[in-house]
Specification:
Blueprint (H helix, E strand, L loop, with lengths): L1 H31 L8 E6 L2 E5 L1 H17 L3 H15 L29 H4 L2 H12 L10 H9 L11 H11 L7 E4 L9 H12 L5 E3 L2 E5 L2 H13 L1 H4 L1 E6 L2 E4 L6 E3 L6 E6 L4
Antiparallel strand pairs: 1-2, 1-3, 4-5, 5-9, 6-7, 6-9, 7-8
Helix pairs in contact: 2-3, 2-5, 2-9, 3-6, 3-7
Protein name: Cysteine-rich secretory protein family protein
Organism: Sinomonas flava
Amino acid sequence: MALARRVRRALTVLVALALVGVGVYIAAVVFNRSDTPVVEGCTALLGDAKQSLATDQAANASLISAIAVRRGLPPRAATIALATAMQESKLRNINYGDGAGPDSRGLFQQRPSQGWGTEAQIMDAVYSTNAFYDGLVKIPGYETLPITDAAQKVQRSGFPQAYAQHEDMGRAFASALTGNSQASLTCTLRKPDAPGDPKTLRSELTVAYGAMEASTAGRSVSIPADGTRAWSIAQWAVANAKELAVVRVDVAGHSWIRDGNRGWTESAAPNGVVTVQLAEAP
């Protein structure tokens, strides 16, 4: 019996030592590794203030803003739309409503029972965004109204003052995504886990901005554009970089490079064209 106890004690000590060794190894790997964990997300600067969104929210914000550009609407329209969608759905295309509007759906929580369209139409983010803008442009002087007043005239919410809390976010992302603030939107991302598809990128660009010229060379897509439109497209590409596996965007003397998460830097990128580089196979 004494021998058996000594054997058990010896085994217990060996197991404990092994566990300690494993713990030391794991700690060494964690604390001495060169790659630090990446928390993904997107930010937009306006002045000295920085606003943040998750990557899926930023992608939806880029679509809403691109449709404003496509329609020739002022950045203020995109600001109102973004603040509204943040309040209504957290900028996510959700397929459910709440107690006040059980049939509400989509980015703007529009209701089929209130004449916004069918459920399938409302769940189409392009349709629902255009439906919101259709209502907004009918409001005289909406550009000069307070955000919450303009949004309420379209939405007729039971909480009309709630939209105001999202004004700063709306202004920052709308300004960047309409191209009025240059090199102001960036996303912190992990490395792509799949190659990018130029056909998919061009298709999504068409959905957002309408038909446009573009050329493809390998996994690089070039879009002729200048001024605010160029910066709108460039920052749209950054906002969609996670989903589309974008690794670099070049526009008007600046480049956004995904690797290293350095944001925008000055470069030799020419004027008059936006070049979007997609990931190769990992």
